[in-house]
Amino acid sequence: MACCTRSSDGHFYYYHTLHTIKLVLENGTIRARNCAYLNDSDEYRFGLMLLRSLLDDPQCASSDFLSVRAELAVALRDLDHNEPHLYPVCLTTNPPLDETSLPHWVMYAHEGGVALELSCSTQPDPAFLAKPADGDKEDRVPLTQVRRDTTDANLGPVEVAYLPLDELTGLPATNPAPEHADLLRVTPLTDPGGYAIHVKRAAFALENEYRLAFNPRIGGKSAVEYIDLDGLISPFVDVYWGASSGWPVISVTVGPGKRQERVYSSLRTFLGGSTIKIRELGLQERKDLVQRCLERWEGIAKSRRRESLRVRLAEMSTRLVSGRSPTEAPMDFGQAVDTEVRALLTQVFESHSRWANEDKQVLGECLSACCIVFPHGLLLQRANVPYVY
Known about the structure:
By secondary structure, the protein is of the alpha+beta class.
């Protein structure tokens, strides 16, 4: 995988428990945990060992790398005596409706868990923020994002590189990734930790992970707080998406599980009845989400052979998505969608045609699969991947 690239559409997914997702939506922050407390914490050590093997390459013997060697020696020494000052937020490009999401549901969200879809195609303005541990909630200052390539000034998720191990020794394989050695030779790499936090063994490759990694030191203060988690006092940093009210969440997906329907129903009530903190959706984002919802409804109607209902849904999609003015205010568009959906439901549920009962049943199935929740315009949906618990 290439260094420091983004997914093609800028969409990333954050899988976690329902409790944690509720906190993200209520507080407008995502919690970055110290890398020593992650379930793959050994990968940071792997990254440092890999970096040492690359620096041992004769081609990296010039004086340009003396500072890197010194920093690496400190990082390796501190690894055994102190916790690294690196706090990543772990994302993926594996979408929750795809079977590639199964490892994420099992390991991170667990049964009844949730995935947030983040639209990271635009950068946070002005930058990622955090509050000092002893400061007020409104006292926010910029965080330093730690990157693998120190010449990359872009803000946003960095792609994790997956590299093989030697089968006999379990150590980084010889010349495992020439492009990484090339990167060392041409880049003023000064932070070995920034390299190591974005490297993992090839066994994790199916995760397709991206990371936002931060140094929690803010001037002379620290943004680190502590929580009792899994029997440990775990350090963390609450990260804000710039100056906006929250992260750029556009959809919420409920994972597989025996309680999926109840979790979906409770989230629908929560999202529609509470003041959640997300970046405000633009008009085109709202239209895209409505189209995704109606396309799924159309697919359900088609699979149930309710052609007349499918046609009505297709006509609604055309009116709402294609036929409305691009200058229309997002909230007006949301009200228009709400009006159209309510009118269709009323028409079907008050109908006395011989097909009415079947249409009602299929529409009920549509609403229990996905919906647009107002006033925010988020897409709420249920994952249809296999049950894995």
